[in-house]
Amino acid sequence: MQTSDTTRTLSAGHTPAFSFEVLPPLKGTGTESLFRTIDQLKEFNPRYINITTHRSEYVYDEQEDGTFIRKRLRRRPGTIAVASAIMNKYDIKVVPHVVCSGFTKEDTEYMLLDLQFLGISEVLALRGDKAKDEARFQPVRGGHSHTTDLLKQINRFNEGFFCDGTPIKHVGTPFSFGVACYPEKHEESPNPDSDLRYLKKKQELGAKYAICQMFFDNQKYFSFVERARAHGITIPLIPALKPMTKLTQITMVPKTFHLDIPKELADEASKCKNDEDVKALGIEWGVNQCKELKAYGVEGIHFYTMSAVDSIRQIAERVF
Ligand code: FAD
User: Among 74, 158, 232, 281, which is most exposed with the fewest C-beta within 10 angstroms?
Assistant: First the structure.
């Protein structure tokens, strides 16, 4: 059984906790690469490993007669099983993501029940990304529009009620949960204050901490924390980093994640001749970010591992 005391786990001591996020393997590719990621990072004593959840997408296959067949495709299934496999193999705490996107309330309920059977009682609750073929986020019929609604469902489940209002016979260990936050504002939010109002709402609904979207400029994080505190947000706001590893990321990251690359980093990156140079720059930048965050007194530093495991390992060797 895992501990469900999120606050103790995330804010103990002065040394920031090292943690990271993994993705379930692409369908059919097995667990080898996933376990290799964990093997490379486990010596830094991760406090927890997050496992993302991905919705199904619809793809359109063109037929010989010019018509299209719509097919449902889930490229990365298996969040719960991956959580269980990690827990069993490594005895490291896991935090699976529960998302609204592509899931009905019943789907979420089944996920919570499965997690409870496994003794997993901490999740990261999110709205999830929009479907790739949609211009804006649309909940599935019977699904939630926002994380706040998902949190209400989890709270109701903790109180002993299914989403149709019927009582749960055996109410297990209550779930505790973290949420996401955005130092540079969520892309859809009309302004930073509006985004913080909803983060405050998530705190009121019981979120114990929030994990940040990646950022490359610590000043943005520091100013975000100040503004959040002024809004009455008291939960830990865990900084999250992803070191740059490729030349293409200089333009792709701002577009995909709606954040700025600081001028100094962009200037240095423009001098890089190849991905190797960018990787070296990303490691130096990451080490400096971590040292500054450590000095600031953050509870933990979280890492996004996709395509960056070796860089994270090199950063961790110099920081944790
Ligand atoms: P919400 O809290 O619903 O916020 C979305 C927008 O709506 C914001 O602009 C917010 O200000 C506004 N808002 C919030 N509540 C309300 C409300 N009640 N009424 C009106 N407006 C509101 N995506 C995945 O698909 N799978 C993952 O596993 C995953 N993991 C992630 C982990 C982290 C740490 C982060 C930072 C992001 C992750 N994402 C993941 C992406 C994330 O789901 C998207 O950024 C999504 O667009 C927003 O999620 P959210 O939980 O912040 O949504």
Answer: 232
